[in-house]
Amino acid sequence: NNEPPFQQDYFTDENRVLKRDPQQDYHLEYAMENSTHTILAFSRELHTCDTNDKSITESTVRVIWAYHHKDMGEAGQNYHGSNRGTKSLRLLNPEKAEVLSASLPYFDLTNKDVPVPDKDTTYWCQMFKIPVQHEKHHVTKVEPLIQKGHENLVHHILLYQCSSNLNDTVLEYGHECYHPNMPDAFLTCETVIFAWAIGGEGFTYPPHVGLSIGTAADPQFVLMEVHYDNPSYTEGLIDNSGLRLIYTPVLRKYDAGVIEAGLWVSLFHNIPPGMPEFVSEGHCTLECLQEALGAERPAGIHVFAVLLHAHLAGRAIRMRHFHNGEEQKLLAYDDEFDFNFQEFQYLKEERTILPGDNLITECHYSTVDRIRMTWVRK
């Protein structure tokens, strides 16, 4: 049919009834339909001052979609049945221009046939030796390699730098992390050099930054910690997930590093049940940053991306930054945190953190649906 395309702004009430919004804030820019696809491109102000619209911020946005194979009739919309779904997005996260890395060398750090226990949560640790040695290179991108079908099983992957004094025997077997029988070598791996969490894509470093590998000061041995989530206690799962590191001999101006801030994993951090709102604060104090940066980085560090991480009770995370006792603009925040969608937020402008600054990580939780205390775990 050759009818002109149209689009309307509707909202729903608590009874899930759709109503046409008296203030039409969505504007059709483009429309196309063929035998398989209907495409609509539309625009909207971020803040419409309309109580029936949600403001669009840097927080996670849960987009809900549904469609019916027939156009909307005179009597209103047709029910979509099972043609519906949701997707978490960060609409304002600036796109990273993808630098083509097809020709660049890479290496994979992947688990080999790990038997995932039939229990709720498992942390599996495996040592690897960085294959690039004797000459400095920069890692420019890290991609998750999640075994097909295991997208919900692999919750997060951390890469730690270990002592360089280890020998290759540590590479021979993996082990459950934080276990009494865990190899002593694992205890030398304290510095996080990369983090990926569920729902996240690969991470591309900015064009002027890379993760240094290949020199004596760089990580020779790394520990990969994979957090498996198996709430249904499925037996017999075998996993081969991991990370791909893409690197280049063409060096960039700056080396990348990781600063971890927030609440330490401890039994002192607990959340009472039945709380609609409970806030915990992790303080990275003035004295701490003075000591950490004063000697090594007196000119400060430049933050270009932030990964906010919490678990199922997490509802919002805010990263506050103070300089000379005065609060700056939030470093990063997500007021609509989604446990199943955790990826790096690239900052629009790099932020300098100086010795003597302080950081406060504010974690907001809800335990309305819980009857027991909640203790944090990694």
TrEMBL record:
Swiss-Prot/TrEMBL cofactor(s): Cu(2+)
Tell me the keywords, alphabetical order.
Copper, Disulfide bond, Endoplasmic reticulum, Glycoprotein, Membrane, Metal-binding, Monooxygenase, Oxidoreductase, Signal, Transmembrane, Transmembrane helix
User: How does it sit in the bilayer?
Assistant: Single-pass type I membrane protein
The record's Gene Ontology biological-process terms are: dopamine catabolic process; norepinephrine biosynthetic process; octopamine biosynthetic process
What the entry lists under PROSITE patterns is as follows: DOMON
Keyword presence, Cell cycle: no
Start and end of every DOMON domain?
Answer: 1-68
A GO-annotated cellular component: secretory granule membrane
Q: What is this protein called?
A: MOXD1 protein
Q: Which organism is it from?
A: Baryphthengus martii
